[in-house]
């Protein structure tokens, strides 16, 4: 610190001593030191002796130095670029064709579903099967197909293409602000278990007693909620022999069917398969069983099909224990053709129609047929037919098997359509895989408000509002989103879906019918029938309004009118 103070002091002293030398001077005025020099106003003055005095001399002008310009560096010469040759464009390689996809003009099975395949120009398009020549042709007005992914490009109306895709379900990030009616203010759920009219004899000219649309299920049906077992009877023939194990041949089908029904359930369940290690050989060639009759062409003979099942059981009964089975599936090697077995049969037998095994009688039998469509169609068809084993009825108009009509429910529910195959909340309730506390039963005249989680989301949250209007009829509301197996839904199909139930409607007609808002225009596939925010509709004396919508689902208000 001393040294620092000393240096500062010297600096101050030096400054003080230099100040007089900068004072203004005048020629002839006295100075103190001979030859001393002083500068003032641009002149140099020297202290000289004049007589006995020391005086300042005449000032000599001091030249102002010109500033030396900073040297400018010489620019680095830029080399002249050599011209770059224009590259020869490389043509985009033509995409390699997928040999598994059909082509325009290729053979197809009559009445088979649309598929994605190649046009004559080798462009992926939607192909339909012509009814007059059973050949594929591009469907007029079909949606565009992405040439990279091979999938339909979804627009607001979504796609009509069946798919096996499953969209993983994330938890909701939004919360509704509406006040929801308390469960204690609603009716007991038992009032909303609408009875099926069939067992009561209240369906005119009812031709069957195996499928229902209301409670209860017939006791002969397999119980989905109790994790049923499907016993596979795998058979082949001298002229149609299996080369792999049945488990390998059907692993995609069995896995999908099990996963599908497990995901329809709130609680953990299983659809279990018991599959033999190899095929059992039938005693006759396949043609001798005369199974080529096609239901869609009017040539199907059920008695021949059932006789075939009984003979198959007799071939395997000594080797297979049927004790745990509630469903039998008779399968053959996958190379079977439609000409060999023309119809896939789901026989849900009535009390007098059992198939007898050494261990027990079994009423529910699946009989595999030849393929009619692509892999997605075949696997979804297996899943649909398995639904009959649990007691579900077809919920489309099947009066004319060759021209079935899905317009009552549009794209919704696998028992109607493969486009949006997630089962309706009502179907899950009927099967016992939707809990009672997930149902909101509205039986009074008060205005009520209900939060509905999307039916596709696996959750214990509320999934359905049921409004009973009579013993056999009800209004039902649920929420739908592009989630789960409903990956073909467009944005116009997302929202609150309203439909009616009438269990007196006879078999082959749909007991479930969507109610569309006034703005809807797609009356065939009902893809714009979902109630969006602030939309409402009136049906059977009730007004239903969507008052809030988000990733949580939909909040609906129910009002009794009139």
From TrEMBL:
Q: Bias regions of kind Basic and acidic residues — which residues? A: 95-104
**Which residue ranges does the record annotate as region Disordered?**
61-106
Skewed-composition ranges (Pro residues): 64-94
Name of the protein: Unannotated protein
